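Good morning,

Both structures are done.
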Amino acid sequence: MLAFPSGARKDEHGANTESAVFQFMSAHRCVRATGVAEWITMPARAEGREPAQFQAHVQAALERARSRGIAHPIVIGALPFDLRQPVSLAIPQTVEFFKRQDQPAVAQSTQTNLPQATYARSVPEEIRFRQGVQQAIANFHFSDIRKVVLSRLLEVGLAENIDPAQLFARLLAQNPVGYQFRMRTANGAELIGASPELLLRKHAGRIYSNPLAGSARRQATPALDQQVSQDLLHSDKDLYEHSLVIEDLQRVMQTLCSELTVPATPSLISTASMWHLSTAIEGIPADPAMSVLELACQLHPTPALCGYPTQLARKLISLVEPFERGLFGGMVGWCDAEGEGEWAVSIRCGLVQEKQVQLFAGAGIVAASCPESEWAETQAKLQTMLNALGIDIQPAEKHSAAQQQTQQQTQQQQPQAADEVLV
């Protein structure tokens, strides 16, 4: 935890955070905060430490903010996919709440061209991602794993430094529904995205969650788009994937709630680029004193972001994915001193810093998954951020024929690592 009781406040790289901006947009309530009174980086979970210690740490930071004259302090920011890693939360100096309809017109700069992309690189590349899907499916036959979420990063280099405010304005204009966020992180980068998925909201003594699992890409014509949505609604593969998420969330939430309402069948929701199977869950916490952040940490990561069963799926992810997710696939949002607030899952997002942008997308893998289709799904999900950046990734990701041939020859010559199976 980094605290700055007086003088100019800095992030861990020494950058001034007096002007740091945090924004979280939702149909329920929007937040815009500026400045950093205190950073919180303590992991939400750690070996040998009770989860309650993290919650007490957050509450103490909120109380310190109140003692410094911040009348209604909140904690805002992002938690990682792995809650054993440091969080990136801030106690802002100023906070403004408003309704989405009262949001000022999107910045006039939304039509301004953003910096050109100089390169784009997928980690893993397509062939390795598809191999990872095959490896995951093989594990389903020899273990208790029934679903795992495999993801990829797309690293994009830009010709000039990007303006995060301009990118966020474009993202808002293109994605007017869902949960849009712009969060300064403790290391100076900005996490920007438009997530369709609510992990948890707490308001007036009730909690709400809206998990998504099962997806299909939107189509250009109304007739095709309608057909795709109906195919998704009746897809055995996607309904099975969705049921794993809902059943596990219901199991966990029943231990936290005195009342819980879970619809018997999913419905459809859409974004600008995707259709999703959706189930809206509502409940009353058994312990009214538990904050939305504390409750959200109990739910995260759900099978929608990790897999089922959670611990085995997490192990498989660590074997298959060639990178650490960090804040990707985590949760982003806010919580006030009274325990109310809202947290969305950190998907359809990117980390932005100067001339570098790192984008994230994942796909839920079950026994009936097709490696080519899962790769295509990640491509479709990346479009949310690529469209906001104004980047056509197809030419950016292409290499010359000679480069592709050389790469393929190199891969053929290298011995393949043996697949590991979790039993």
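Second structure follows.
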Amino acid sequence: MSDLYEFKASTLSGAEQSLAEYKGKVVLVVNTASKCGFTPQYKGLEALYKKYHDKGLEILGFPCNQFGKQEPGESDEISEFCELNFGVTFPLYEKVDVNGEQAHPLFNWLKAEAPGIFGSEGIKWNFTKFLVGRDGKVIKRFAPKDKPESLEADLVKALG
């Protein structure tokens, strides 16, 4: 695969969606979890989404239970948790694996395009973020500890 638009993912409601729907947008892809020390980042992600969505930003949340079993819920529980606790309005997708044999193809591509520290392709924890430009190509990878507000300069640059 050569860009984001070649992938599909299932929404929390179970509908398969082509990511080609985001053509021409700047997209931030995040593996999320509801019971993680970084879970409060949902608030910062939502703030960025509200601030820049009209300028072409999309944030795609992919719940993942691979790190400390911190996303144990089913789709309806995840949706309710994110909406009630953080007012999340950006798109959330079905729970996925981001590492290993069952990893979602999107995350295999993201990791190959933007390896982590020392060239490692594995995702180390929840809330790893990937910034994708309007051309569907990966611009940058951000660590779980990188707070959403620290991404703002890169987002603004990508939004051009």
